[in-house]
Design brief:
It is built from six helices and three strands. By secondary structure, the chain is α+β, with helices and mostly antiparallel strands. It has two domains: 132 residues, no CATH class; 34 residues, no CATH class. Strands 1-3-2 form a three-stranded mixed β-sheet. It starts with 14 loop residues before the first helix and ends in a 5-residue tail after the last helix.
Length: 192
């Protein structure tokens, strides 16, 4: 199983086996990285421009071959147990669903060890690309700790933890309470 730089397991043997479509791929099959960030890698951008900015990986989805491949999560639902995120506006509470790294990207201007993103050097020679790629999935806090603290895998057939369900229902209750209409005088009557 792959491990983080700190030595904890990430829950998969091959991050590319569960990786999604590249974040830089547009709906029409072009490479957004080459279109918008050509100065970051001029040679790569020139090659893509010569090919009409088409993604050189294409339908093969051999993501390891692309030096700029990145697949990050939208963080709406845990991929292990299916627990959905419930966020309350203007509430600073910890999210139910968190981003979990299966592989770590190489440092660049936006992210690097100084900003909390580590580099997994074990993945640097595992493919055709120039090094590791950032690959993330969404895990609830409870599954996240199980994956890092044991031999749990992200593809286990798991049900949401009872504490996770209780927290989600508590947030839903708060959400429903907040959506009920009350006039300002009713809401703040106790504060006067």
């Amino acid at each position: 199983m792959e491990h983080t730089p700190d030595g904890t397991p990430v829950g998969v043997d091959d991050p590319y086996g569960v990786a999604g479509i590249c974040d830089h791929l547009t709906d029409d099959g072009r490479c957004r990285f080459a279109l918008t960030r050509s100065g970051d890698d001029p040679d790569f951008a020139a090659d893509r421009r010569a090919d009409g900015y088409a993604c050189h990986v294409g339908a093969d989805e051999r993501w390891r071959a692309c030096p700029h491949y990145r697949s990050t999560t939208d963080g709406r639902e845990c991929v292990r147990c299916g627990l959905g995120e419930v966020r309350i506006a203007h509430d600073g509470s910890r999210p139910l669903v968190e981003e979990h790294h299966l592989s770590y990207g190489t440092p660049n201007r936006e992210k690097g060890p100084e900003n909390g993103l580590a580099v997994d050097s074990d993945d640097s020679d595992s493919g055709d690309g120039d090094g590791p790629h950032e690959i993330t999935v969404a895990l609830c806090r409870w599954c996240h700790s199980k994956v890092h603290n044991s031999f749990a895998r992200i593809d286990d057939d798991a049900s949401p933890d009872p504490a996770a369900i209780a927290e989600r229902e508590s947030r839903r209750s708060t959400e429903q309470t907040e959506s009920a209409f009350k006039t300002a005088s009713e809401r703040y009557a106790d504060e006067r």
